[in-house]
Design goal:
- With 286 residues, the chain is an alpha/beta fold.
- The chain is built from 13 helices and 11 strands.
- Strands 7-6-5-10-8-11-9 form a 7-stranded parallel β-sheet.
- Helix 9 links the parallel strand 6 and strand 7.
- The C terminus is likely disordered.
Length: 286
């Protein structure tokens, strides 16, 4: 059966122009909409909804992608999304990637009020304080999801959660767990502690060693990890707010770990300790 003829063939179409504007933060904030690109992100968006409505509201697909990912198109249709068959030029014009995969979804904002996260009594939380790189933010969100964290918090000085690079780097995890945005770091730490969560700062210059903390059995309770800026880490005033400053031990000759790698180690250390029966060993031992 020959592919269907695209209904949208001009980048000047009002629908295309409206979607293309969402690549800019001010338009995303005004419309409370963002772009999800590629089959994985669109599949997750199509399956996500909150109490009010489905997250995916519109989908642009090339004829080839619509044929290849017919199941995703079906999920999007079931979610009530408007589906536009579009030319490759149109999809490329909306996309922010160098090599578009033929699917671009328009999604509603889905961040969660911080108060709702606290009310759920989370046991494992990642707090991103002054994290500016969207790729790092999305990757940490993915690590938190993989480790079983119940929430992620982006402070008011961090990158936009809906930056296309952050959305891509999360590889769909953005749709899996609650994320609060715009929370001042001092408020985030204070309220987490008030709800019985131990707040740890991850810092290479920390006076506590992650292995030692695991071996002493101090990591099994509800925990929030605070991760700092890629270039300068956490300022002293932020470290002072937390219960302890913990470093990931470097056993080889590497100068340091990047943000996403350190976050993965810390989050998995907490996840393992919280799930352990009869204690746990160091996560970095050979």
């Amino acid at each position: 059966m020959p592919p269907a003829t695209p209904e949208l063939i001009s980048p000047r179409s009002p629908r295309v122009a409206a979607a293309r504007r969402l690549a800019k933060r001010n338009f995303r904030g005004k419309e409370r909409l963002f772009l999800a690109e590629g089959p994985q992100a669109v599949r997750e968006a199509a399956g996500h909804r909150d109490a009010d409505a489905a997250t995916l509201v519109e989908l642009f697909a090339t004829p080839d992608a619509a044929d290849r990912y017919a199941d995703i198109i079906g999920d999007a249709r079931d979610a009530g999304a408007r589906i536009h068959l579009a030319s490759e030029q149109v999809v490329a014009d909306i996309s922010t990637t160098v090599t578009p995969q033929g699917l671009v979804g328009v999604c509603r904002f889905l961040d969660t009020p911080f108060e709702d996260i606290l009310a759920a009594r989370p046991r494992l939380v990642a707090v991103l304080a002054h994290v500016r790189d969207p790729g790092n933010a999305g990757t940490v969100l993915r690590c938190a999801d993989a480790a079983g964290a119940e929430a992620v918090v982006l402070t008011d000085a961090s990158v936009d959660l809906y930056n296309p690079k952050a959305v891509r780097a999360s590889v769909g995890s953005l749709f899996h767990l609650p994320v609060a945005v715009g929370v001042p770091v001092d408020r985030a730490v204070a309220l987490l502690r008030d709800t019985g969560v131990r707040v740890l700062a991850a810092d290479g210059a920390g006076d506590r060693d992650l292995d030692d903390e695991l071996d002493k059995g101090t990591m099994g309770g509800p925990t929030a990890w605070v991760f700092g800026n890629e270039a300068w880490g956490l300022p002293e005033e932020t470290r002072a707010l937390t219960d302890a400053v913990v470093s990931v031990p470097i056993h080889g000759k590497a100068e340091s770990l990047n943000l996403a790698t350190a976050a993965a180690v810390c989050l998995y250390a907490s996840a393992r300790a919280q799930r352990a029966v009869g204690g746990c060993r160091s996560v970095t031992e050979n």
